[in-house]
């Protein structure tokens, strides 16, 4: 049996290795694809259009939960990508720190922001290249991370959630990929026919095991809402945590 310290070290090493792989992927291989997926004016294939539609629904749900007027509220958008969610938070007058480990995606987010005149009257924003876990960003009223932890195993994801909870005052909203029977078949087939693009694997989790991990590891917080969004090619589930 591993000692607690050895286990923590192992988890940290696993996290660092995965984070490196994700950073490489989103900063090099997937930049263009991600830029197109998150732009409003580029037409996409049927599959990507379905992913975009699902993501938009999920984004709307997160925004409804977090509220319409965020004046005076601080929000961390952890793993912000090209900043789609951050822009809507700024429009609701939140003071946003949007962080991502891909400098290329942060550059796109900054460029897009500079083009949105109407956001100039919204809340403050800082788009920063870095690790979402960096404590120097400070504490926030709300922390959101949409599809930002889907590549981490649930043992790592729960560590991320726990650390972010310690920096949130009101709520945390994150998404995970729920393990459904159909997805299980797709993933098993994917393992037999691996793709060569080095995309970090998505790590689906069963709702039950995730809830169990949360109740055992995240103290002082409770699950206050869940919502699954599905289109043909996008399935994601939002979890909202609030302080008890
Ligand atoms: C699937 S994308 C989602 C991006 C954005 N949240 C959205 O919904 O448009 C996952 C993002 O999380 C970022 N990410 C993953 N791990 C991170 C970490 N530890 N710190 C900061 N960003 C991270 C990746 O670079 C990537 O941009």
Notable characteristics:
Rossmann fold; 244 residues; binds S-adenosylmethionine; alpha/beta; globular; seven-stranded mixed beta sheet
Write up what this structure looks like:
With 244 residues, this protein is α/β, with parallel strands linked by helices. It has one domain (4-243): Vaccinia Virus protein VP39 (Rossmann fold, 3-Layer(aba) Sandwich). The protein is built from 8 helices and 7 strands, in the order H-H-H-E-H-E-H-E-E-H-E-H-H-E-E. The chain has helices spanning 4-29, 31-37, 46-66, 84-91, 103-115, 154-165, 181-192, 207-217, and strands at residues 74-78, 95-100, 125-129, 140-145, 168-176, 221-231, 234-243. A 7-stranded mixed sheet has the order 3-2-1-4-5-7-6, sandwiched between helices. Helix 1 crosses helix 2 (31-37). It is globular and about 55 Å long. It starts with a helix and ends with a strand. 33% of the residues are buried. The model has no long low-confidence stretch (mean pLDDT 92).
Strand and helix map with partners:
Blueprint: H1 4-29, H2 31-37, H3 46-66, E1 74-78, H4 84-91, E2 95-100, H5 103-115, E3 125-129, E4 140-145, H6 154-165, E5 168-176, H7 181-192, H8 207-217, E6 221-231, E7 234-243
Parallel strand pairs: 1-2, 1-4, 2-3, 4-5
Antiparallel strand pairs: 5-7, 6-7
Helix pairs in contact: 1-2, 6-8
Residues 19, 22-23, 26, 38, 79-81, 84-85, 99-102, 105, 131-132, 146-148 line the site of S-adenosylmethionine (SAM).
Offer a quick outline of the entry.
By secondary structure, the protein is of the alpha/beta class.
CATH topology: Rossmann fold
Order of strands across the main sheet: 3-2-1-4-5-7-6
Q: Largest sheet at a glance?
A: 7 strands, mixed
CATH top level is: Alpha Beta
* Spatial separation of the terminal alpha carbons: 34 Å
Structural class: alpha/beta
Specify the number of helices: 8
Heterogens: S-adenosylmethionine
Low-pLDDT sequence parts: none
Q: Would you report the number of β strands?
A: 7
Indicate the CATH architecture: 3-Layer(aba) Sandwich
Query: Roughly how many Å is the radius of gyration?
Result: 18 Å
Provide the domain count. 1
Label the overall shape.
globular
> Can you tell me the CATH superfamily?
Vaccinia Virus protein VP39
Helix content: 40-55%
Average pLDDT: 92
SSE ordering: HHHEHEHEEHEHHEE
Strand composition percent: 15-25%
